[in-house]
Structure formats: C-alpha cells, structure tokens
Design a protein that fits this description.
Length: 652
C-alpha cells in the first residue's frame, strides 16, 4: 500500500526548503512547487505511455520508429519535448541556468497543450540553482509513479493545511477525497456526452471520469466534453494542470464569471448528460435577487432572510445540479449531511425533487473522509432516466461504519469496498449481470493471489531450514483447499488457514533468528548457507529473512482482506438478489419517505444493525493506536529537548 502520508512529508520538506531559501510568501511559493510536482508527474505518465506505444511500434529499415506527439494524442496523454522531461532537467550540468531551463520546460509544455497557455508557473529564475536542484532531487520520487487520481489536488490541499489553514477552510471549500469521487463516478457511470462540474476545484471529478471512460476502451476525450466553473483562478489553474497531465481537454472558466450562484458560464442549463460536484457547504450571504435573475431554480429559491440573502446555499447547489441535466441525465454530488432533512423552504424543494421521481440513491459517509475536515457528508444521486419499476423508490445506503482506516485522522473506501457499495446500486437497478461479473472478479483475484502466495511460502521454507516443518503441513492444507475450491464461497475457508500461517511463520522465524543469534559467527554463517552466496554476514541474512517474511505476511493480509470483502457482499446478497439489509441499505418508496417528513437521511430508513465485535480488527487497530501514541511521545520528547536547549542558551 502506497504511503501517501510519507510522500506528503517529503513534499513538505521541499516546501520548507523554499521557505528557507527564498523571500517568497507561502501563497507565492506554493504554485512553483506544484509546478515541479506537475513536471514530475507528467514525466511519469509520459514514460508509461511511451512504453505502451513502443510495444507495437513499427520497424523501418531495422529501426523502431521514434515516438511523436500524435502518438500521445491518440492515447490521451501529454507529449513532453526532450527539454521538458524531468530527467533532462535533473541531469543538467552544475553550471547550467536551472531556473531558465525550468521556465523553458513550462513554455514547451504550454506549446503542446493550448489549454495550458498562461497557466504554468514560470518564476523559477528567482530561485538559486542549488535550491532548484534540491527540489528536483526531492521530487524524483518513485511513489509519484504509483499514485493515481487527483494527486495534484491532494498535495495542494496538504500545502494549504500546512501554510494557509485560513484559506483551506474558507467558505467550506476543500479537496474531494479520491474514494468519494470514485464512488460518484461508479454510480453515475459516465459513458459519453457533456459533463459539468460547476465547482470544479482541482479537477478530480474530470480525472476519475477520464479513467473510468478510458478503462471501458473508449477515448475519454472523444467520448466526453468536460466543462468546469471555478471561482478561484488559482484553483482553476490547478484544474487545467491536473487535466493536462492526464491527457484530458476541458473548458474551464474562472473568476467572477465562474461564480455559479450568479452565472451559467457555459450556458448548459438542461443540456448536461452528467453533473458531478463537491460544492462548498453551508455558504451564506448569497444575494437572492441576483441568484433569482441567474435562473436554474426549477423549485424556487431556498429561504431568504430580511437582508434579502439566501442564508444557506446548499439547496441552491442542489437545484442547479438538477437544472443542468437533460432529459436522461445523471447527477452525483457531495453535500453536507444536514441538508438531507433541513426544514423550511429546503423541505419544500426536497419534496418537489422527490415528486419528480428522479432522486435515485443517497449514501451516508462517516467522519474523517476529508483531508482537512472531520465532518460527515452525504452523496446524492439523481437519474432522470430511472427504470419504471424503481421510479417511485429511492435507495438509501448507510456507509458510515463501512470504511478502511488510513490513520488516526483519515478514512477511505478501499478498492473492494467501493466495488461492494456499487454492487448494491447495481442490484437495486436490476443489473444482476454486473454483480455476477464482480463475483467472478473476486474469485479470479483471490485465486491469483493464492497462487503467488504459495510460491512465496515455498521460498519461506528454504529460508527457515530446520524450523520449516510446522509450516509444511499448513502449506499442504492450503494447496488442497485451493485445488478443491470450485466456487467463490469455497475459498472463504482459507481465511482461517492463512491467519494460522501468519501466526506460525512469526513463531518459527523468531525461533530461527534467536537460534542463529546464539551461534558463533562462523557457525551462524554456515547455518544460513541457503542464501550465503548473496550475503556475507549473519546480520545481512537476518535482514533478508525478515524482509522476505514481511512480504509474505503483507500479501497474506491483502488476500485475507479481499476474501473478507467478498464474504461481506455474498453474505448479504448471495448470488445476486437485492434485499434490504438492516443497518446498511433500504429501498424506500415515496410514501415511506413522505411518512418521514421527506427526510433523505439514510439512517432514518436502514435502521441499526447489531454490533458484531471483530476481534482481529480490534487488535490491529490497537497496534496502530499504540504505534501512533509512541510516535507522538517521541515527537513530544524531541520538542521538550529543543525547548530545554533553547532555555539553556537563554541562560534560564
């Protein structure tokens, strides 16, 4: 699993270098740093696409034809001229004018993408060569090759949270987590047509949609037209950078004309196939008359105060999202949880919305999904082409207790949790085939991982020497169970065997290493002869063994997680029949909703499931908490030492 937090701390180091080595303010140096990240990320994608192009490259006169800009265009990727490539900048001689070279790289990229003209930062000559070189070195990080989605947006918010918290929390504006964006895309299922995000921020909705459409075998740029509005010009630049690095073309408007409360900047009312957004929550002081004149309010204005202002704009946004849709359009958006059952004019708008039959799915999201906020939220979905048999129904999903803990302050939905939540929507829509295909995907994934694991386990035996016997019987049992498994359900029993393997491996590896530690150096080396052709000391052997066993345990943990998620799904829905699940999901009729005063809060419908204690998860979480506390204690000790040293220097 990619350690995003570690990556961010390394990026913080680069920002701190800028702070120390330049006279720029935080607002001034944030964009240059993001420019370097952009170059690095663009280069990573360039190399990946280049390798893909070269696989089937024609050969003329015994030579492979060189790649050209058009080759990248057909792959929806950004072509980088040689002098705009990260490795070129990284390897410039010490006496080169690096600031000038980076500026030139930005200009060359703008020549490749018309939507980037005037967007990329070109202020690098104000930095010393050694500072820029160090920045380039720090961002030459392999992790950036592995991270997908809205990486620029996430890192941008990280910088805001570090350097400008007042900006990060201003007007409820904050970055949309990748798993929430992916959930919206999964339910909306964009295929082709017009997509609008009227509060587009750094463009995460566009990036995930592009990935979704491209994965279906269709070119996102040919199938989709992306439109965005973003009031903050700085954010709009980030959006264009983010889209460009993912090979997407978009029409993004910013500044006053992009204030969605008062402008339909692209004239798209009633024309959109898809609308996706994470608007700022609970905005107040919106001018009622100007808003009314701007239109897109099919259900009228929300409540207006005595100052002729809309005091909470949540239902302005909700109305806009509906108004932008064409007769078959779908919308998915993030909204403050309070909006699902707010009263007054909000309730009246909600009632009218429900009477259209176009409210499709409501999903409650728990705390700590947002990067700088701990607030819960709700995902809303409209579908103007719902099937007749569910037209008078709404699917409620309460996912507040279904997530993966990243760390103490951040939760997310894993890849398989996203698939499971989406599968509930499929079954509600009667799309059983998609569910069956997911079960087949689970089975294939688990079998492939078990095949890899068995190879790793056999290698473990070689390293364990005389301590391998207790594991041999387990491996034989696991092989037998795999061979006998004909269905997905047959594989579930392997979870306990894998758990037992981890426990036994830990015991035997401790025995192995403690035995070797008790031998003389020469005896220890002889004892470790299995791999002594690659290591020269007992210490190196221990390190090699520990790394190998850690890899096995990590792979087992991932495999067991996938098995548990598959079981979670099939325990509830079997071979593919939707049913209400207490505490999770409920298909409610409009009469049910009317009885609850038109509330759209999932928890009001799904009920509360009995709590099942998961001893294993509890134990894992306790270890995580212990490690976090230990880390915090170490930080506190370091801080106290610094304070004490400062006092001593002051003679106190």
């Amino acid at each position: 699993m990619i350690n995003i937090r570690k990556l961010e701390s390394e990026l913080w180091e680069s920002a701190d270098l800028l702070r120390q080595g330049s006279k720029l303010t935080s607002n001034e140096y944030c964009m240059p740093v993001l420019g370097i990240i952009f170059l690095r990320y663009a280069y990573s994608r360039f190399k990946a696409v280049e390798a893909e192009i070269l696989k089937d490259r024609p050969v003329r006169a015994g030579r492979v034809l060189p790649v050209e800009p058009n080759d990248f265009k057909t792959k929806n990727a950004l072509y980088l001229p040689e002098k705009a490539r990260y490795d070129y900048l990284l390897n410039l001689p010490d006496d080169a004018d690096l600031g000038k070279a980076v500026n030139e790289a930005m200009e060359l990229i703008e020549e490749q993408s018309s939507q980037l003209i005037g967007v990329l930062p070109k202020t690098y000559t104000s930095f010393h060569n050694d500072l820029l070189r160090e920045l380039l070195r720090i961002f030459n990080n392999k992790t950036l090759d592995e991270v997908g989605g809205d990486i620029i947006g996430r890192i941008y918010e990280y910088f805001l949270s570090k350097f400008a918290p007042a900006v990060a929390s201003d007007d409820g504006v904050f970055f949309t987590p990748k798993s929430l964006v992916q959930m919206i895309v999964n339910v909306i299922e964009p295929k082709r047509g017009i997509l609008l995000d009227p509060a587009c921020g750094s463009g995460g909705m566009f990036v995930q949609t592009g990935d979704f459409v491209n994965a279906s075998g269709t070119s996102a740029n040919s199938a989709m037209t992306f439109y965005g509005q973003e009031k903050v010009e700085y954010n709009a630049k980030l959006c264009l950078m983010n889209m460009a690095v993912h090979g997407l073309n978009g029409k993004i408007k910013s500044g006053d004309e992009a204030n969605t409360f008062y402008n339909d900047a692209h004239n798209l009312e009633g024309k959109c196939d898809y609308v996706m957004a994470n608007p700022p929550f609970n905005v107040d002081k919106v001018k009622a008359e100007s808003t009314l004149n701007a239109g897109r309010l099919p259900f009228g204005l929300p409540g207006v105060n005595d100052k002729k202002e809309v005091s909470n704009a949540n239902y302005l946004w909700i109305s806009y999202f509906y108004a932008y849709l064409n007769e078959t359009g779908r919308a998915g958006f993030v909204m403050a949880s309070s909006a699902t059952d707010s009263g007054g004019k909000d309730r009246e708008i909600r009632k009218q919305l429900l009477e259209t039959g176009d409210v499709d799915v409501m999903i409650s999201v728990g705390n700590n999904f947002f990067y700088t906020k701990s607030l819960p939220c709700t995902l809303w979905f409209f579908d103007r082409s719902k099937k007749d048999d569910i037209r008078d129904k709404v699917l409620f999903i309460d996912a507040r207790n279904y997530f993966t803990v990243v760390d103490r302050t951040l939760n997310e939905w894993s890849r398989w949790q996203l698939k499971n939540l989406t599968a509930i929507v499929w079954l509600y829509r009667g799309e059983t085939e998609k569910y069956i295909n997911l079960l087949a995907e689970y089975k294939q994934e688990i079998q492939e991982r078990l095949s890899t694991l068995l190879t790793m386990m056999e290698n473990d035996l070689l390293l364990l020497e005389r301590f391998a016997d207790p594991l041999k019987a387990l491996i034989k049992e696991i092989k037998s169970a795999v061979n006998k498994a004909h269905s997905l359900q047959d594989l579930y029993g392997l979870n306990d065997l894998l758990k037992k393997y981890v426990s036994t491996l830990n015991e035997q590896s401790k025995a192995l290493l403690s035995y070797g530690d008790g031998l003389e150096k020469a005896e220890a080396k002889d004892f470790a002869k299995v791999i002594m052709d690659t290591v020269s000391t007992w210490a190196q052997f221990k390190k090699t063994v520990s790394a190998a066993f850690e890899s096995t345990v990590a792979e087992i943990k991932e495999c067991r997680t996938i098995i548990k998620e598959a079981k979670w799904l099939t325990d509830k829905f079997g071979d593919g029949v939707y049913q209400d699940v207490l505490g999770l999901c409920k298909q409610a009729s409009l009469s049910d909703i009317e009885e609850k005063n038109y509330s759209l809060t999932p928890g009001a419908y799904v009920g509360v499931a009995p709590i099942k204690e998961d001893d294993e998860n509890f134990a894992e979480r306790m270890i995580e908490i212990h490690n976090e506390l230990r880390s915090l204690q170490a930080e506190a000790n370091d801080l106290m030492e610094t304070i004490s040293a400062n006092f001593e220097r002051l003679g106190l």
